Amino acid sequence: xxxxxxxxxxxxxxxxxxxxxxxxxxxxxxxxxxxxxxxxxxxxxxxxxxxxxxxxxxxxxxxxxxxxxxxxxxxxxxxxxxxxxxxxxxxxxxxxxxxxxxxxxxxxxxxxxxxxxxxxxxxxxxxxxxxxxxxxxxxxxxxxxxxxxxxxxxxxxxxxxxxxxxxxxxxxxxxxxxxxxxxxxxxxxxxxxxxxxxxxxxxxxxxxxxxxxxxxxxxxxxxxxxxxxxxxxxxxxxxxxxxxxxxxxxxxxxxxxxxxxxxxxxxxxxxxxxxxxxxxxxxxxxxxxxxxxxxxxxxxxxxxxxxxxxxxxxxxxxxxxxxxxxxxxxxxxxxxxxxxxxxxxxxxxxxxxxxxxxxxxxxxxxxxxxxxxxxxxxxxxxxxxxxxxxxxxxxxxxxxxxxxxxxxxxxxxxxxxxxxxxxxxxxxxxxxxxxxxxxxxxxxxxxxxxxxxxxxxxxxxxxxxxxxxxxxxxxxxxxxxxxxxxxxxxx
Length: 491
Hints:
The chain is mainly alpha-helical.
């Protein structure tokens, strides 16, 4: 008995040490993470809103319907970014801090709520599982909606649990608002409203379900404000937007097709495979005490997973984030339940669970360390070096990351407009004609653009007639081309 107690204390201390070390590693990764296109896009929206009071994006010139005022956007994320910018200044790391802090708050809430009435070992296990799950902490390192959305989703779920304990309708209303705010952060966050509503209906709490639904819609309602200011543009940017990764389909069978192809998300990459398989291996043990303690949680998780799977979202791993913390709770609960499996098949299942747990921990640690390794190229520094060679306030066609920290110094257009205009006719002659006709003063080329346009370094240096290679940064694989101006001699 004493040996078991010592063993439990040791495991707890190791789990605690792992969690603290993982958070320290994430702080390093926060600075080294390469800039995501969406960070620049949303960051530019915040800049525009701060400077003009509305959102317009030069990034999407020649990319209708985004080449005009943007009325459909991640409102709560943008408003949060605007607030952070007014307090700490506009910049990549100020904006990223919103996602990072939201992730830490989600972990803190999970830890605190699970610790109430249960032992703290479970709380630390859940935190450790999440910190070893790349799809969770990757959202903390990028200024995208998922981390903030999850914070509101976690708040909504635990507020529902509080309401179920106290039978206080005010808590159900608050839970609905939190779920609505998740949808206001990103439309797919509305899944928390649906999950709370349906789970409470299954739990035979009709009044509570209605409260969650009504207040969820209230919290979400500002998302549709663009419909009342410009209905046609709102519909175009929501439904008929050709720049969306996947077009929305309203065929009656599409949700079933989406549901049957959900494996393309939950088993898409190593960043989610570890958690998915560990969760599936835990399911045989969701019975007895585990089921009785977590019945409502399991219903809530199941509804959320089904709605997400059936939705028209592309099968990106990041859209799995609403179910990740709840999967972690089930896995942590099961880890206690497999101590003494009784039947032969249960022993085999428990062995598989333990073996996969070791692999899960090993890969999670590897992914954390790899992410924290400093990247060779600091994109912001490279952008600053190139900016010194460019004409201020000129039109620049550049990769998205040039927004940081050159927004305000130049008019920045992405390459998407040129890509769309060229179609299958991507050539130097077309590129020059397009850029020259739009008044583009500078072209910044990176490896992605070189591959898309089939450009070589030799072509960049001498293959153009209207632009010349002004600066070459081979180590950063960035190249600056500037327009050639003809100067006429006075007679």
